[in-house]
Amino acid sequence: MTSGPAFLGYLRTDGRVGVRNHVLVVPTVICSAVVAERIAAAIAPIGTALPHLAGCGQLGPDLHVTHDTLAAYCRHPNVGAVIVIALGCEQLVAQYLADTARQSGKPAHIVSIQGEGGTVRATARGIEIARRLADEIGRTDRVWCSASSIVLSVKCGGSDYTSGLASNPVVGRVADRLVDVGGAVVLGEIAEIMGAEHLLAARASSPEAAAHLLRVVNRVEAEAIALGLDIRGTQPSPGNIRGGLTTIEEKSLGATHKAGERTRLEEVVPYASRVSKPGLTVMDTPGLDVESVTGMVGGGAQVVVFTTGLGTPTGNPVAPVIKITGNARTAQGMADNIDVDVSGVMSEEETLDAAADRLFDEVLDVASGRPTAAERLGHREFAIHRRNPTI
Amino acid sequence: MNAVLIISERDNVATALEPIDQGRELRAGAWTVVAAEAIPRGHKVAVCAIRAGEAVVKYGSPIGTASADIAAGAHVHTHNVASGRGRGDLAAGVR
Fold this sequence. Notes:
The structure holds two protein chains of two kinds.
Chain A: E1 6-11, E2 17-18, E3 22-27, H1 33-42, E4 47-49, H2 60-74, E5 79-86, H3 91-103, E6 108-112, H4 113-116, H5 119-137, E7 143-146, E8 151-156, H6 161-180, E9 184-187, H7 197-201, H8 207-226, H9 238-242, H10 248-255, E10 265-269, E11 279-283, H11 289-298, E12 303-308, E13 321-325, H12 328-333, E14 340-341, H13 343-346, H14 352-367, H15 373-376
Parallel strand pairs in A: 3-4, 3-5, 5-6, 8-9, 8-12, 9-11, 10-11, 12-13, 13-14
Antiparallel strand pairs in A: 1-2, 1-7
Helix pairs in contact in A: 1-5, 2-3, 2-11, 6-10, 6-14
Chain B: E1 4-5, E2 13-16, E3 25-28, E4 31-34, E5 44-46, E6 55-58, E7 61-66, E8 75-76, E9 81-82, H1 88-94
C-alpha cells in the first residue's frame, strides 16, 4: 500500500503502471484491419484492435508517425499482450512492432495473412493465439499503485458555454491535484490553445518550454493561413457556435482551463511521443477529437478525462475515456454517454471544488477497473494523425 | 441564480445562463444592463458599449475584435465579433 491517493493497477515489468489489461491486436496496414478486428472481437472486451487507414502508400515523416503510434500502443501499460496482424508484404514493420512489445515485457506474436493462406486461416490462427494470451495475462493481479503513476489526458469535444464555465475548470482542478501528488497531465489540440498560449507560456517551467509552445502554436496557425481558408469553418465548429462560442480565442481560453491553474508546463512533445515528466506536457496534436486522443494515449496516458457540452461518444481502444458535462440537458439527453454530471456547478448547487472531489475519485475508481460509459458501449475510436497525402 | 455570469472584472461581455428576453434587466458583476434583444442560453451580452475595432474581452483576455459598434445589452456573437487568428481567408484577400 502506498501513501497518498492510490488505485489498483497492473505493475508492468518495465516499471510502468497500467489500468487495463488488454490483448492488443495491431494491423500493420489497412489491408489487415478487418482480420485484426475479428480476432479482437472473439475475445472482447479483453481483446481490442487498432483498425487504421494507413501503413502503405506513405513516405517519410508520415509513415514514421504511423509506425511510431502503433509502436507506442504496443508498449502501452494498459496492454498485457500483443498480436500483430501483417498482410505479409510489410514483414519488417510487423517484426518491429512485436519486438517493441517484447522489449516492454509483453508476449507478442505475428500472424501474416499471406503466410497463413487467407482471411479464414489467419483469423482462426489469430483467435487461437488471442485466447491463449487472454488466459495467460488474465492471471495478472492488480496491486495498489500511487496516483503519481497516472498520466492523465485532458480533452474537450462538442464544447459549449458550459465547458469553459464548469466542466473544464473541474478537470483543471483535478489536473492540479494530480500534479500536486506527482502525476502527469497531457493537453493536446494546438489549434485550441490559439488565443490562450500566453497563459500557458507564462506557467512554463523553462524559457525553452515557453518558446517551444509558441513556436508550435505559430506553426499550426501558419498552416491554417496557408490553406487560404477561414478557420472559422471548423474552429469554432458550427455546433460550438450554436452553443454560444464566437471565436477560436474564446474556445481556447475555455479549453485550456482543463490543464489546471497551478500546473507548470514542463515540455512540448511530438504526436504520440512519450510523456515522461511529472507536471503538464503539451502534445502537438490536431484538434480532431479521435486523432488527438489517439496521440495522447500513445504518449502513455492510461486514463482520459473528456469534457463535453453538446455530448460526444468517443472512446479509445486501450484507455478508459471518462465523459464529463456541465450541461444538464446533455447529462439527461445523452445519459448513456456521460459518466460525470457537473451541471450543478452551473446552477450553483455544487462548487467547483466539490465537483473536482467527485471527479478525482472517479478517475481513481476507473483506474482501478470500473468501466466507463464509452467502454460499456464499445466505443473504441482510433485514428492516427496524417501529415501528408497518400502516395 | 443570476441570469448572466461575468467571469473577470476586465470582461466587457457576460454569458447568459438561461434564455433572456428583450428588455430584461441584467446584473453582471458591477454592471447593470437591459437586454437590447433576446439572448439565447449560452450566448454573450455586452455589459457596456463596445466600439468597432475594440477588443471583446472574456475570461479577462481578448476573444476577438468588435466588427461593428455594439450597444450595451446587445447580443455579442459571430455577427459583430471577428477572430484575428488563423484567418487564411484574410491572407488570401490581400495577396
